[in-house]
Amino acid sequence: MFIDRLLNEGNAPLISKMVQFTEKRHDVIAENVANISTPGYVQKDLDVKEFQNQLRRRVQERMRSSNGSRSFDDISSEIDVPVAGMLFHDRSNRSVETLMSNMGSNALKHNFFVELLRKQYDSIQSVLRERVA
Predict the structure, then answer these.
(1) String of b and e for 73-82 (b: at least 16 CB within 10 Å)?
(2) I need a labelling partner for 114 at 20 to 30 A (CA). Which of 16, 38, 81, 87 fits?
(3) Which residue from 133, 124, 102, 132 is spatially nearest to 15, judged by alpha carbons?
(4) What's 130's DSSP letter?
(5) Do the Cβ atoms of 32 and 97 come closer than 8 Å?
(6) What's the Cα-to-Cα distance from 14 to each of 3, 5, 65, 83, rounded to whole Å?
(7) Tens digit of pLDDT for each residue in 86-128?
(8) How far apart are the C-alpha atoms of 31 and 42, rounded to whole Å?
């Protein structure tokens, strides 16, 4: 019970959800890069703003409710078909520069959240080591 509360009542579940989202988004962007020259392929992406809004609402609900009653498990990210940018004759919006920029930005966010999660677990581990048995 004590360990469960340590892991689930802090920021770790929120950060973990962000790591999962950036990992999934990286896969979607990599698929777009792999299919950049595939005729008729329509690029996909995950709706970052909607995912962030879902997290924001859940954090606000969590702050208003009792500890441990709200989790982040049911928050999902839906694959979106963005229509921004110039459309080619096959109705796709290919841009290697945009894809690589998105991939780099997403990778930086992913690494940042992984590092935050690692520090969170390191602090929990140091607390547990100092406990007198």
Answers:
(1) eeeebeeeee
(2) 81
(3) 124
(4) T
(5) no
(6) 17, 14, 16, 30
(7) 556 655 667 888 899 999 999 999 999 999 999 988 888 887 7
(8) 11
* Spatial separation of the C-alpha atoms in residues 28 and 12, rounded to whole Å: 24
What is the value of pTM for the model shown? 0.78
Q: How far is it, in rounded angstroms, from Cα 83 to Cα 92? A: 8
| Domain boundary assignment for the chain | 2-129
What do you get for the CA distance between the two ends of the chain, in Å?
A: 17
What is the signed CA dihedral for 99, 101, 103, 106, rounded to 10 degrees?
-130
Amino acid type, 17: K
And the tokens for 60?
């606000």
Q: What are phi and psi of 121, to 5 degrees?
A: -70, -35
Confidence class for position 7, pLDDT limits 50, 70, 90: low
Look at the alpha carbons of 37, 41, 42, 44 in this order and tell me if their dihedral is positive or negative: negative
